[in-house]
Amino acid sequence: QVRLVESGGGLVQAGGSLRLSCAASGLFFSTYTMGWFRQAPGKEREFVSAISSSDSPWYTDLTKGRFTVARDNTKNTAYLQMNKLEPEDTAVYYCAATAGGVRGQYDYWGQGTQVTVSS
C-alpha cells in the first residue's frame, strides 16, 4: 500500500520560511517523480513544484527563486523549502507521486499539510 505523508506546515509571518517534507512508503521511490501542489480556499488545486526521478527540478513562475524542491532517495522523502513566504502562499500543500512526467497524471497523493502565512 502506497502512503505519502506530508509534514512541516504551520503558521508563519510574511517573509518567513518553512520546509515541507513528504515521506513515502510502498513504492519504489527513486523511480517516481515527486510533485508538490497546493489548494487555497475557494480555488482550484495548482501545481507548485516537482522533482523528477533524475533530480531535475520544476517550478512555476510564482515559486521559482523562492521555493526549492529536493529529494533524498535514501530516506524515501521529498522536500519543499519555501522562503520569502507571502500571504498568497496560504494553502493546503499536497505531495504526489507519478511514474510519468512532471505534468502528467499523478498516481498517489498525500493528505496535505496546512500552510498559513500572516501579513
What report would you give on this structure?
With 119 residues, the chain is mostly beta strands. The protein has no helices and eleven strands.
CA(first)-CA(last) distance: 40 Å
Q: How many helices in DSSP terms? A: 0
Counted beta strands:
11
Beta-strand content bin: over 45%
Oligomeric category:
single chain
Shape field: globular
Mean pLDDT: 96
The structure class reads mainly beta
Backbone CA Rg: 13 Å
Question: Helicity level, as a percent range?
Answer: under 10%
Low-confidence residue ranges: none
How would you sum up the major sheet? 7 strands, mixed
In N-to-C order, the SSE pattern is EEEEEEEEEEE
Write the layout of secondary structure elements.
Blueprint: E1 3-7, E2 10-13, E3 18-25, E4 33-39, E5 46-51, E6 57-59, E7 67-72, E8 77-82, E9 91-98, E10 108-109, E11 113-118
What would a concise description of this structure say?
The protein has 119 residues and is mainly β.
What labels describe this entry?
globular, 51% strand, 119 residues, mainly beta, single chain
